[in-house]
Write a structure and sequence with these properties.
This protein is α+β, with helices and mostly antiparallel strands and 202 residues long. The chain has one domain: 3-Layer(aba) Sandwich (NADH Oxidase). 43% of the residues lie in helices and 17% in strands. It has eight helices and five strands. It has helices spanning 4-11, 26-39, 56-63, 68-74, 83-93, 105-114, 122-143, 158-164; strands spanning 17-19, 49-55, 97-104, 146-148, 171-184. Strands 1, 2, 3, 4 and 5 form a five-stranded antiparallel β-sheet that branches. α2 (26-39) packs antiparallel against α7 (122-143) and α3 (56-63) packs antiparallel against α5 (83-93).
Length: 202
């Protein structure tokens, strides 16, 4: 079966071996992310997804030695067990950049007040929207030859990220995606039998 969309999905993997030697230009990367975010579906066309793209020193500010994530993790990880964590952060810092994914919670709140019958659903739909957004950006980056992985150091880093990158108070950090040129392939992946996951009737 030939399907370009499915081929792109298969290409998207968690990639941890990264460097800055990407063939795609900064302009192409930004345009790719913008297009992905623009066309992501959302409940009531609420368009709650937000993204912040970090390059260069700004990326270093997040993942580098003494950076936001390291400082936050030193508060919860004992020093004698920090070496694996430091190694992981260094692998993210070695990449070209990072996408920070947010949801605009003011929109969620406004919709809850406007459509009270669905008030309990809007936070759920917001989480679905950010998941779709992350998947779309991740797959789009893979399609231009970039690897990445999805990280979740929020909420430990939320306030520091907000101050460092001038993030509005109503934006809620949901995930971080370091990306870059692929220096090592994805790990092998096992799949459960598809028959146990997809049922067909009729």
């Amino acid at each position: 079966m030939s399907n370009a969309f499915l081929d792109s999905i298969k290409q998207r993997r968690s990639i941890y071996g990264l460097d800055k030697n990407a063939k795609a230009s900064k302009h192409e990367i930004v345009a790719t992310i913008e297009e992905a975010v623009k066309y992501v579906p959302s409940a009531f066309n609420s368009q709650t997804a937000r993204a912040v793209i970090l390059f260069g020193e700004e990326n270093e500010k997040l993942w580098g030695i003494g950076g936001i994530v390291e400082q936050a993790l030193h508060k919860v990880v004992p020093d004698d067990k920090f070496a694996p964590t430091a190694e992981k952060l260094a692998s993210f810092n070695a990449g070209l950049g990072t996408v920070l994914f947010f949801e605009d919670m003011q929109i969620v709140k406004d919709l809850q007040e406007k459509f009270t019958l669905y008030a309990d659903n809007f936070p759920v739909w917001s989480e679905q929207s950010t998941g779709i957004n992350q998947f779309a950006v991740w797959t789009a980056l893979a399609n231009i030859g970039l690897g990445g992985s999805l990280q979740h150091y929020n909420p430990l880093i939320d306030e520091a990220v907000r101050k460092a990158f001038d993030i509005p108070e109503n934006w809620n950090l949901r995930a971080e995606m370091p990306f870059g040129n692929i220096t090592a392939p994805a790990r092998d992946k096992e799949f459960a039998p598809i028959e146990s996951r997809v049922k067909v009737w009729g």
